[in-house]
């Protein structure tokens, strides 16, 4: 049965009538591709096998770090409706489509990958999912002030599609520098839940990527893991919040 073709109400009916069904949701793998040379664009990919359908999928995101908005005609979303096809085939098509749409080859982006200064996979059981404190560059002794990134789950109105799916949540994200009298800077606060995010039940900080271009402002990209309603269990997907500093 193909999950994305089910309505949320149909999904709920299946879950209610099959309470003893072993559940195994789909946790998308994350590939932090990197930045454009000047740090103006950040790209990442999530991919995996869709629960329920067994179809390989990949989603590629290209973000303008000055505005924290998607580039025109992106994200690139590929799903191969053939459970005998491969994730590698889907990813290859998405890479080619992304390059055609943005004129940014992966070779340039990966060359400017920056630094992963925090990483908490969804399988980590003891780390704080809502707060990280990082040295923004692997330089010791540190040249930069440390950054404290804090995530807070907030109530969000549920769309009709998400009714009876649980407590739907949005999030607020702040960044604070370790300086006297520094106040947290608001990076993101949901006013509404975009349809593309599905029915989110929770969030956690999954990774922090930084980049210091030779000519341009330093950039931080906070990767947020989104726990969503899936067909066979909770699904995990990724989003990013970017900030030039």
Question: So what's the overall shape?
Answer: globular
- The strand count comes to 13
Describe the sheet with the most strands. 5 strands, antiparallel
Following the backbone from N to C, one meets helices and strands in this order, namely HEEEEEHHEEEEEEEE
Classify the secondary structure makeup into a structural class: mainly beta
The figure for the number of domains is 1
Strand fraction: 35-45%
Distance between the termini: 46 Å
Average pLDDT score: 89
Enumerate the spans where pLDDT stays under 50 for 5 or more consecutive residues: 1-22
Report the C-alpha radius of gyration, rounded. Answer: 19 Å
Helix content: 10-25%
Alpha plus pi helix count? 3
Description of the molecule:
By secondary structure, this protein is mainly beta. It has one domain. It has helices at residues 8-17, 87-102, 106-111; strands at residues 29-35, 41-49, 56-64, 69-70, 76-79, 115-119, 131-134, 147-155, 169-177, 185-189, 200-211, 219-228, 235-244. The strands form three sheets. Strands 1, 2, 3, 4 and 5 form a five-stranded antiparallel sheet that branches. Strands 6-11-12-13 form a four-stranded antiparallel sheet, with no helix packed on it. A four-stranded antiparallel sheet has the order 7-8-9-10, with no helix packed on it. A hairpin with a 5-residue loop joins strand 1 (29-35) and strand 2 (41-49). The longest helix is centred in the middle third of the chain and has 16 residues, at 87-102. The protein starts with 7 loop residues before the first helix and ends with a strand. Residues 1-22 have low confidence and may be disordered. InterPro entries: DUF2259_secreted (IPR018725).
């Amino acid at each position: 049965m193909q999950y994305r073709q089910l309505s949320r109400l149909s999904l709920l009916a299946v879950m209610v009538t099959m309470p003893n069904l072993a559940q195994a949701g789909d946790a998308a793998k994350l590939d932090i591709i990197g930045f454009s040379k000047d740090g103006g664009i950040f790209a990442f990919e999530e991919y995996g096998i869709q629960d329920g359908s067994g179809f390989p999928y990949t989603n590629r995101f290209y973000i303008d770090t000055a505005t924290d908005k998607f580039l025109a005609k992106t994200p690139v979303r590929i799903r191969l409706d053939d459970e005998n096809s491969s994730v590698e085939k889907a990813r290859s098509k998405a890479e080619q489509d992304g390059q055609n749409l943005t004129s940014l080859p992966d070779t340039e982006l990966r060359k400017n990958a920056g630094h992963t200064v925090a990483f908490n996979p969804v399988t980590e059981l003891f780390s704080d999912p809502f707060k990280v404190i990082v040295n923004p560059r692997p330089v010791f002794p540190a040249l930069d002030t440390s950054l404290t990134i804090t995530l807070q789950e907030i109530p969000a109105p549920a769309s009709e599609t998400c009714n009876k799916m649980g407590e739907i949540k949005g999030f607020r994200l702040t960044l604070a520098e370790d300086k006297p009298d520094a106040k947290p800077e608001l990076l993101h606060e949901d006013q509404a839940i975009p349809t593309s995010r599905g029915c989110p039940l929770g969030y956690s900080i999954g990774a922090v990527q930084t980049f210091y271009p030779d000519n341009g402002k330093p950039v931080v990209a906070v990767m947020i893991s989104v726990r969503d309603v899936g067909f066979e269990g909770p699904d995990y997907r990724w989003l990013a919040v970017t900030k030039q500093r």
